[in-house]
Amino acid sequence: MANNPANYKNPPSSPSSVGDQLTEHHYNKAALIEVQKTQVFQPLADVKYIPKHSGKSIKQFLYLPLIDDRNVNDQGLDAAGASIADGNLYGSSNDIGSIVAKLPALSENGGRVNKVGYTRKVIEGAIQELGFFDEFSEDLLNFDTDAQLNMHLARERLRAANKITENVLAIDLIQGAGIVHYCGVATSDGTVTGEGGDISKIEYADLMRVSITLDDNHTPRQTKMLTGVNLTNTRTIPAARVIYIGSELQVQFEKMKDFHNEPAFKPVHEYAANAGGALAGEIGSVGYFRVVVVNDSEMPADLGKGAAVTANAGYRETGSKYDIFYALIVGEGSFSTIGFNNSKGTGKFVTHTQMAGSEAAFTRDNPYGKLGFSSIRWWYGTMILRPERIAVLKSVAEM
């Protein structure tokens, strides 16, 4: 029979002479190292550390570029000194006539002309505390055939908390994306279809259009990812952006053809040695993207939110409506989050285990002290910094 790994002084056999031994810290550390390897979206974030007494939100100033349509202000003076609506010169226009007409030219005497203004806004993300607990009996730990049951329970507890964080973060990124691209001729969720002349299926042209839009938004063509349990080091993926998909879209990516009807997909083993190694879940590359399949069902989908099914051509559906699947691109510096881990490695989570049979276990509700429990709680919050650097493509998926 197995000894209780956290209460050795009163087991059925092989008593310890040193009394109680609580090894939750060791268990949590080992489990944290393991779950860190499965984190997909958290390593992409600029992690924020909020000091105490700072409220339950993250706030930051976002200064808009001077020459940009988003810089709307009433401080402008044109080259003749007349007031103009916006002091952003020619804004985001690339039209030659507009640029030349609004150049900040100066006369010989200068004068009070060409005044510009600036705009900043406050972006904010709320944080929320999450947590759950489980109970166990003294007999479970004493008589179970797994001598390391307590360690395995601690591992599963952290895995579940990490999965919740990954799921919610993925949803926040999808909902916070500034670029939403519908594949095929779809223009809304309700028009995403798996039938007709132009199926809403992700193709090479869709990826190239989104890539160009990200380029126009000055999204870096590199990705920095936090590494290590302490999240203190970074790894740079050069000259490529990472696109995250669920396993439902993997077949479509591997079958994809480019504009010359040649295979667009390049398997990861063909280039990984020259690209700094493969990312966790990376299966290959298409165009300017490295493709990562998000396992463990951590890539959200909208099931049964597409168009009504009348003559399905072989695509996934739920409740007689097509399912919508996402391909997510997260540009560098696009969001911040309250990390599941912190810089000191202790974790932004708190665990507590009350062992059955310990003195503190004897309460009015537990008069025999036969029950114990373990709980975990942590803070979660996300702030979208640059939505124009986050893109989602909405597609149907083959069965």
Structure overview:
Helix content is 18%, strand content 27%. The protein is an alpha+beta fold and 399 residues long. The chain folds into 2 domains: 1-64 and 119-399; 65-118, no CATH class.
- Residue share in β-strands: 25-35%
The DSSP helix count reads 6
Q: What share of the residues lie within helices? A: 10-25%
**How far from one another are the termini?**
48 Å
List the helices and strands and how they pair.
Layout: H1 24-36, E1 46-48, E2 57-63, E3 76-77, E4 83-84, H2 96-101, E5 120-137, H3 138-143, H4 149-175, E6 179-182, H5 204-216, E7 223-227, E8 233-237, E9 241-246, H6 250-254, E10 265-267, E11 282-286, E12 289-294, E13 301-302, E14 317-318, E15 321-322, E16 324-330, E17 335-338, E18 349-354, E19 371-384, E20 390-395
Parallel strand pairs: 1-17, 6-20, 9-12
Antiparallel strand pairs: 2-5, 3-4, 5-19, 7-8, 9-16, 10-11, 11-12, 13-16, 14-15, 16-20, 17-19, 18-19
Helix pairs in contact: 1-4
List keywords for this structure.
single chain; 399 residues; alpha+beta; 6-stranded mixed sheet; globular; disordered N terminus
Write a concise synopsis of the structure shown.
With 399 residues, the protein is of the alpha+beta class. The chain has six helices and 20 strands.
